Automatic annotation (TrEMBL):
Keywords: Glycosidase, Hydrolase. This is Spore germination protein. GO terms for biological process: carbohydrate metabolic process. PANTHER family: CHITINASE DOMAIN-CONTAINING PROTEIN 1, CHITINASE DOMAIN-CONTAINING PROTEIN 1 FAMILY MEMBER. It comes from Hazenella coriacea. InterPro entries: CFLE_GH18 (IPR041704), Chitinase_II/V-like_cat (IPR011583), Chitinase_insertion_sf (IPR029070), GH (IPR017853), Glyco_hydro18_cat (IPR001223). Residues 25-44 are annotated as: Disordered. GO terms for molecular function: chitin binding; hydrolase activity, acting on glycosyl bonds; oligosaccharide binding.
């Protein structure tokens, strides 16, 4: 996707107890080459079960099994633009997180930053013993800006100023880690981006901070396109402490109905990534959202509505819809009719699709999981996460 307006909505906030949500600008993304039509395999799922919340203690009673669980790191991106709402979301979820990543400090071409009102959610992060992570991006007012990135890459003075400004914010506000989310960079700027990172990251790490980068999903060195073309997996794996694979957005709000994160596609990305990046540096992206499409799908339809996992389950329950499970993509979906008689198709995440993603983390032995994004209801995910892993917590000052 070339415009942020095609990426969906920036984050969503729950505005009523029944799960109605407001959509803002977001980085929900699409791949450079959208897939073709889907084939699905039916397996019925009880929607009431998807709404149930069970604690890890109830289902994880054997001490031996608990001792066998592997420790992983977890990361959750959050939009702090509504500070009190963000703080509430952090209080609800940060017990399950190693890092809380504040999206985003927008970078300007002169090396300055657009600042955030993030003190309240930062305090919540520290109280929950999670590491606060600053996120910098090349987002403009509406789009990711290849021009801003190119100027920084080709003007050492501006790049040095950016490093100084980032370090100052981290010291002043108590951030302990940095995430670099530069996207839609010109393919021809890959070497320039590498050179920039090769100088920028050591400056930040020298101050004692952990530095990570975000990578668009790739399956080969030859893969081109505006999202992934400039991302050099091997180089990022060398210079960053870890990377976040953005393994989502195979579906987007103006594209055809399909899973946001189908397991076979995630597996292809991991198969490539582990040949370029040490597995202990890889965080797997996990979407906390799905989409509700009006059928039949055709260009010009209203954009699909973003839905949280629990909101989707409520719709299925209210509409008495049969939830199916695609055994190939390992993702649930259902159909329903709205008040106008229009047919809808909803792809979303549930505990079965979450378990499939956890299984990938185990199979590939990677560092952990990165959630996009906090503030989206999926209570069962967190208890299931603890049934599968021990979450590493270092405290906010280490």
């Amino acid at each position: 996707m070339k415009k942020l307006s095609m990426l969906c909505t920036l984050f969503l906030f729950v505005v009523t107890g029944c799960g109605v949500v407001q959509q803002n600008e977001t980085r929900e993304r699409r791949l450079d080459h959208p897939p073709g039509p889907r084939e699905t395999v039916d397996r019925e799922v009880n929607p009431q079960r998807l709404l149930q919340v069970k604690s890890g203690d109830e289902t994880q009673s054997k001490r031996d099994h608990a001792m066998m669980k592997r420790g992983i790191e977890t990361l959750g991106f959050i939009d702090p633009s509504a500070p009190k709402v963000a703080a509430e979301d952090i209080y609800k979820t940060a017990d399950h997180l190693t890092y809380v990543s504040f999206f985003n400090y927008r970078v300007k071409s002169d090396g300055s930053l657009v600042h955030l009102n993030d003190l309240t959610p930062l305090q919540a992060t520290r109280q929950k013993q999670a590491i606060p992570m600053m996120v910098i991006t090349n987002l403009g007012e509406d789009n990711y800006s290849p021009e801003v990135a190119h100027t920084l890459f080709t003007t050492p003075k501006m790049a040095d100023r950016l490093a100084d400004n980032v370090i100052k914010v981290m010291k002043d506000k108590g951030y302990r880690a940095l995430n670099i989310d530069f996207e839609f960079i010109q393919e021809t700027d890959q070497k320039l981006y590498n050179d920039f990172l090769g100088k920028f990251i050591p400056k930040v790490k020298k101050e004692g901070y952990t530095v990570s980068t975000d990578l668009a999903p790739k399956t080969s060195d030859e893969q081109k396109g505006p999202w992934a073309g400039a991302h050099d997996y091997a180089f990022h794996g060398q210079v960053a402490d870890f990377v976040v694979l953005m393994t989502y957005d195979w579906a987007w709000n103006t594209g055809p109905p399909m899973p946001v994160a189908p397991i076979p596609e995630m597996r292809k990305v991991l198969d490539y990534a582990v040949t370029k990046i040490p597995k202990e540096k890889i965080m797997l992206g996990f979407p906390l959202y799905g989409y509700d499409w009006i059928l039949p799908y055709k260009e010009g339809n209203p954009p699909a509505r973003l839905v949280t996992p629990q909101r989707a389950a409520r719709i299925a329950q209210q509409k008495a819809a049969k939830i199916h499970f695609d055994n190939q993509d390992e993702c649930p979906f259902f159909y329903y009719l709205d008040a106008k008689g229009r047919k809808h198709m909803v792809w979303f995440e549930n505990e079965q699709s979450a378990q499939a993603k956890f299984n990938l983390v185990k199979e590939y032995g990677i560092r952990g999981i990165a959630y996009w994004a906090l503030g989206r209801e999926f209570d069962r995910n967190w208890s299931l996460l603890h049934e599968n892993f021990n979450i590493l917590k270092y405290g906010p000052t280490q």
